[in-house]
Amino acid sequence: MDLNCFFLKVLLFFNIRNLEYFMQRQNLVACFIVSLVLILPAQDDLSSMHEEWLELVKPIITKIEREIFEQLSINADRDKFIRTFWKRRDTKPDTDANEFYEEYMERIRFADRYFGFEFSGKGHESERGYFYLLLGPPLERHIYATQSELWPLELWFFKGEAKLGLPPYFHLIFYKDKGIGRYRLYSPGQDGPDKLVVPSNVARVLNRNSAYKMLKEISGELAGASLSYIPGDVDREISSFSSMNLISSIYSAAEKKISDSYVRDFLNYKDYVETEYSHNFVESHSKIKILKNADQYYVHWTLEPSVMNFAQDQGMYYASLRLIIMVEDLEGRRILEKEEEIPLRVSPEEYIKYDKKLFAIQDLFPILPGRFKLFFFMQNKTTKDFISFQTDISVPTDNKDPQLGSLLIYLARERLPEARQDNLKAFTFNGLHYVINSQNHLLPNRECGIYLQVFNLPKKEGASVVVEFISADTDLISYSLTKTIDEVLTPDGMGIDIYPLSLAALKPGYYGIEVSILDKSEEKIFSKRENVILLSESVPIVPLVYAKLHDASPNIEFLFLLASQYYLSQEYENAQNYLERILNIRDSSRPRILLGQTLFARNKFADSIAVVLPVFQKTQDSETGKLLAANYARLKNWASALVYLEKLMETATEWSVLNLAAECYINLNQPEKALPLLQKSLELEPNQANIKKLEEKIKKIRSLSSRKPMIPG
């Protein structure tokens, strides 16, 4: 809205002449239609409490945990992260108390009490405090603070955890260099025994050997630790190296003590998981493939939880899954967010199969060309655990250039029933469903197959396909197979399907499978490669699959997803084409409303009204009413806009509705009705600087208008 015009109308109403002070521009309709405009929460500076917490957990926080925490900008998210941090470390999550947290706080209290007197800082911030917090209390702690021959030092003895890469038992020494300053960690390789001995109290020449002998006279255990932290090491060069490895392993213990995979997607799932369940993160494996069905690219995905939990009721096992999928472009703009409920109910006999085999959830959805970030979140609402992961995808554009799709390594293939041959299903083409394993595991002495898509293949006459298994250890070809293109081309001419491939001649190990297409002169046209693992023994690798069967193309559900993606990508013409295509198949409210929003975005306000008015007349839907009001406002039909806005304000009060209604009243020369609406809007959402300015200026104008003119005497 042009504020020159706006204030002209206000001033005419109040009979004020001075306009210049009030010249500005603002568009309230644009603010409204984004009803859609989001007031983002203000960022919070890192508080002293959060800074102190980072210092407290410095010994045990992993690198990725710290990185994610430092990316958080709101205190509420930081608090949630901290609660999740402790819950992931709770050794007994079924109890009310968090035993790890309580033990860690006790370590801090001990460190502050006994290690803090040596300097102005807190004891847990000292080097002794760091290792005490990380490793816990040592089995033994010997203090040498009054020995005249030694600088003040402490000898600690620990039992090591093999899973952290630590030896069964080891020592650590902390000492004051030359008797001054803080205690620091002693290094057997870099410092040497002479660093621990007071030179003035030694009659003989002080070197490593003489210092070692002197230490041995005081304590054989201390002397041994001065050469190697690992009891029993005798070779000085080896022991020095092993002590360095030990120190390195201790510093990296935080990374090994806990899997930090839960935190990698914290920024994405933090708003979906209650804090009390945030420790129930389940590891999973996934595979994403961009493949074409019926001339449209789809994201085919499979998700394999490491464990699938069920609850029991009346002899049946059940789980209710909540699935959220989001897609963002490279600018961080979300072009897709879909949510669905997946109910699972199985018999005791089926549950035994679930318990002994992998379980996979699979589906597909259409996607636009481009590069995107894909985020999955799946919550088991029954058992309160959840899965989260994200990945980058690249969707090719349709053109006339030859293209070879990525390889799909499969374990078996199953034909759909005759009546379902044209239905859409994940990893299903030409009526064949390809059974895959998300980790590309293969079994010895079994068979596998390869499926890939090929487009615009030049001259097929005489062309051939070569499959090579290349050992990752030797980079040599372990197995090779050649087929003519006609032997492996699928019926639709879009795919290459090679099956069966015998694995009997291959040894267990890591392989790269490379598929190449050669022309009739055996020149390589193009090739693709996929890595696989041939296991050494037979284990369950074929998952039990839950996959939806969707209607064949043209599928209204998927056409609407594409239209939504184009709309959110601001490709409004493409969105309009898809929505009109849907309405030609089946008329319904949802595509009509999105088409109305699309036409509004294209400044086709009258067309937008014509599309959505029947929906409002039938449903009295508030969102449709807002859209109609915004369209009329853009057409400067203020009175018609108010018809819908006043109806909306009867049932609910939203600041965006109030703002647009205020604009309409102003343009109808009724600013006295606009002012209370603006005031109410600011009560609901104070963070509206422009609206506050409008309110203040209208008040000022009214104040000026209320002054009586002076009568000349």
The number of helical runs is 24
Number of strands: 25
Query: Largest sheet, if any?
Result: 5 strands, antiparallel
Could you tell me the strand content as a percent range? 15-25%
**Share of residues in helices:** 25-40%
Morphology? flat
Rg to the nearest angstrom?
A: 35 Å
If you had to describe this structure to a student in words, what would you say it looks like?
The chain has about 725 residues and is an alpha+beta fold. Helix 20 (about 620-635) runs antiparallel to helix 21 and helix 22 packs antiparallel against helix 23 (about 670-685). The strands form six sheets. Strands 7, 8, 9, 11 and 12 form a five-stranded antiparallel sheet that branches. Strands 18-24-23-20-21 form a five-stranded mixed sheet. Helices cover about 35% and strands about 25% of the residues. Among the domains are: about 50-255, no CATH class; about 555-705, Tetratricopeptide repeat domain (Serine Threonine Protein Phosphatase 5, Tetratricopeptide repeat, Alpha Horseshoe). The chain is built from 24 helices and 25 strands. It is flat and about 105 Å long. The two termini are about 45 Å apart.
